[in-house]
Amino acid sequence: MRFNGKTVVVTGAASGIGRATTIAFAAEGAMVYAADIDEAGLQQTASASNGKVVSALCDVTRTEDIKALMDRAAAETGGIDCVFNNAGAGGDRAPIDEIEPNGWDRTMDLLLRSVAFGIRYAVPHMIGRKGASFVNTSSVAAVGPGYSPTAYAVAKAGVLHLTKVAAADLAKHQIRVNAVQPGFINTNIFTSSLEMPAELEAQAKGAIAAMSQQAQPVARGGQPDDIAQAVLFLASEAAGFVTGTSLIVDGGITIGPRHSWDPTMPGLFDALQQMAESGKAA
Ligand SMILES: NC(=O)c1ccc[n+]([C@@H]2O[C@H](COP(=O)([O-])OP(=O)(O)OC[C@H]3O[C@@H](n4cnc5c(N)ncnc54)[C@H](O)[C@@H]3O)[C@@H](O)[C@H]2O)c1
Predict the structure, then answer these.
(1) Mean pLDDT across 253-281
(2) CATH says 7-251 is which class?
(3) Ligand 1 atom nearest 60 alpha carbon
(4) Which residues contact 274 (CB under 8 A, 6 or more apart)?
(5) Segments making up each domain of the chain, as ranges
(6) Average pLDDT rounded to a whole number, residues 150-157
C-alpha cells in the first residue's frame, strides 16, 4: 500500500495505460482522480478498480479543463501528491512535407501543451506535500524516427525535454518530475482514430495483438500494466532520488537493429560469413 492517503491525478484514464495505472494506484491505497473525455470508459475504469476512483471529465487540450481538474482534486482531498500526464492519441499522420499547420498544432496541444499545463496547474496544490512528483508519458518514438508519425514523435521528444527542465524548475519545491517511454503496448491507440465498422476494428485489434507478440526481444506483447508498474515505481518513495529522467519500458524494442536480437533475421556479419563459406565451397 505505497500510496495510502495520497491523492493522484491520472489523465487518459478511460483506456489502456491510463486505466491500468489508475487501477494500480487505487489498489495501493491512493484516491485517484481519473480524467478523460470518454465518460463511458471512465465508468469502466472505476468499476474495474477495487479502490477509490473519482471520474472527472477533462479535455486536456483545454487548459481551463486541466485547471478545473487540479483545483477540484485538491479542494476535495486537501492537495495533490502525484500527477500522471498520460492522455494521448496518434495525432496527425502526415509526413513533414505534407503536414498542415492545423494538424501539427492539434498534435502538439494534445501531447505536449497538455503536459506543460498538467504540471503548471497542479504545482500550487503539490507544494509542501512530501514525496510529490509528476510522471509524464513520452514514447520510444522520442528515440528516433520509425516508431510513429512525425508530429507525434516530435511532441513525445518534447515531453522528454519538458520533463528535464520542469525537474530543474521544481527542485526548489522538492517536486520530482520523470517520464516513462512505453514501447509497443497493446491498447486502443492504434485503432481509436480510425473510422471503421466494428467487425473490421476487431480484426485490426487481433492483428495488432499478434504483431505485438513478436515486435521486441522479450517474447510477449507489451501490456498496459507493464507501464503502470513503472509509473508507480517512479511515483513512489523508492524513486526519491530519481528526477529529470525517463524510464524506457519497451521489452527491448529500442536496443538495436532487429537482426541483433532476432535469430530469424540475418545481419551484415551473417551475410558476410555466408559469402565467405560459399566462396570456400566453390
Ligand atoms: N500504446 C502504445 O504502444 C504507446 C506507446 C508509447 C506511448 N504511448 C502513449 O501512452 C499514452 C496512453 O495511450 P494508450 O496506449 O493507453 O492509448 P488509449 O487509446 O488506450 O488511451 C488513451 C486515452 O486518452 C484519452 N484522450 C484522448 N484525447 C484526450 C483529450 N483531449 N483529453 C483527455 N483524454 C484524452 C482517450 O479517450 C483514451 O482514454 C498516450 O500518451 C500515448 O501516446 C502509447
Answers:
(1) 90
(2) alpha beta
(3) 32
(4) 266
(5) 7-251
(6) 98
